[in-house]
Each structure stands twice: as C-alpha cells, then as structure tokens.
Amino acid sequence: MSFTEEEIRPCYLEDGQTVMVTLTNSGYLLYTLNLLKSLQPYGLDQKVLVICMDAPAAVALKERGYRAHSENHQELARFCPWNTKGYDEICYMKLRLIHRLLEMGRHVLLVDGDVVFRQDPRPAWRSWFSVPASPASPSSPPSPLYDIYIQNDSENNQDTSNMCTGYMWIRSTPTTIRAYDCVSEEGKERYRGCAMDNNDQTYFNRYVKPLCRMYALPLEDYPNGNVYLKRRQELDGRCILVHFNWLKGHHKLVAMKQNRMWLLSPEEERH
C-alpha cells in the first residue's frame, strides 16, 4: 500500500483519527458509485478513501470528484464473484489496507461496496470514537470499551460465531495491529489457510476476534443481506444500512433494484 499521510488526511472523519475506506475495481465500480451516492445526503461521499485495484477505476472516480488511489493491479480489474480466483487477492489487499492504516496510527472504518446507507451513520460513530474514562481510577489513562465494532453475519444477535467484515470500525492499538499482521511470513501463511474459504472474513473470525474486544452491531440496525431479505418489512425505516451480501454475482444488483436501493440513474451508470 503506497498511499501517504498527505493523501489520507482529507479523509479523516470528525474524530481526526478515523479513515473510511472501501476497495473496488473497474468490474465493481458501479456498486462503489452506488455506495458513495447513498452517503451523499450526509456529506460523506467525498470523505471515503477508495482503493482501486486498477488505474482506470481510479481515474473514473477522480473525474467524479472522489478520493481514489490506484494500486495498479490491472489483472484485478474484472468483476470477481465471491470465493473465485481474484476475489481472494482483493480480500488480501483489504487486510493489507487495514494493517497499513492501523500501523499509521489511524482507526479504520471499512465499508464494502455492496452496502447502501439508509440513515445518517454519524451518531453511532460518535459513540464508537469516544474513549470513556476507566472506572478503575479517574486518574488512570482512558480505556476504550471496544477495539472493534462489526456487523454480524448470523441470523440472530446472540450468535456471534460469524462476524461480517463488510462493515466495521477498528481502533488502532498494539493488539489490533498485531492481529491484522498479514504481511509477515506467519501472517501470509495464516491468510493462505483462509483464501477461498471466505477469505478476509474467515481471517477475522479465526485470528482477530479472539484477541480483541469486539462489539457485534445489532442486526435490526445493520442487517446483512440474509436478514434483510427475510425481515425487510420490519427493518425498512429502521436500519442504518443494508449490506447486500449473501447474494452471488450480480444477483445483488437485482436485489438492490427490487428493493429500491439502486440509486444510480441510467446516465450515471453510463458515465
């Protein structure tokens, strides 16, 4: 990851330490544009740092006024469905991105491109960013309640066996930096065991979750695709976002359109 402090500084959220990021490529670009448009009502679309696998995707985003950085992997420019070859490499880039930002002392708010925001997410973020005083001693250094706030990929809030890495906030601490080490030989070997087995999500559930203080976000406010499609009448009007995972290939595009969450006009799709 070759971006600099100067490149990411304009993307800091209101705590001055968190960078909101997403990854894309030319084959996934329309989903990313849909995500960004869903953030537009809250003035957040141009705060997102978009890491592009290929240069043409970065050029297209910059022409629209977004903050994009190209990693120049032209071989990863195509749409890569879940758990196919290429998808595993993009997921590894996601882990490298998180590790790089954490090492820079930045907190990370990672959002996948198949997320659509339905309400202003900032009130929840403010509670995550805050660092309450330690109850042990008022004079001791502040101690955060959680290292990670993350979406649940299960069907009920009590089941936290499978967390979803498509929406999460990660505090930069020595523990999270160590947990996200995917660049050492040991870290690379860990990821090889996760590649093609739900990739970065498996990596999180195996190697990050056991080490960190984690808060599972309530499914009623942050539904995964499976929960939303089963409970949409209950959740519409309440949820902060919808993540259209659990849908392979472009079935997610169909579901977004059927549920009126495809926000791009035909003109925006073409240009």
Notes on the protein architecture:
- This protein has about 270 residues and is of the alpha/beta class.
- The protein has a single domain (about 5-120, about 140-270), classed as Alpha-Beta Complex (Spore Coat Polysaccharide Biosynthesis Protein SpsA, Chain A).
- It is about 35% helix and about 15% strand.
- The chain contains eleven helices and nine strands.
- The radius of gyration is 18 Å and the shape is globular.
- The model has no long low-confidence stretch (mean pLDDT about 90).
SSE topology:
Elements: H1 5-8, E1 18-24, H2 29-39, E2 49-52, H3 55-63, E3 67-70, H4 87-103, E4 107-111, E5 115-117, H5 122-129, E6 148-152, E7 163-170, H6 174-179, H7 185-192, H8 199-208, E8 214-217, H9 225-235, E9 241-243, H10 251-258, H11 266-270
Parallel strand pairs: 1-2, 1-4, 2-3, 6-8
Antiparallel strand pairs: 4-7, 5-9, 6-7
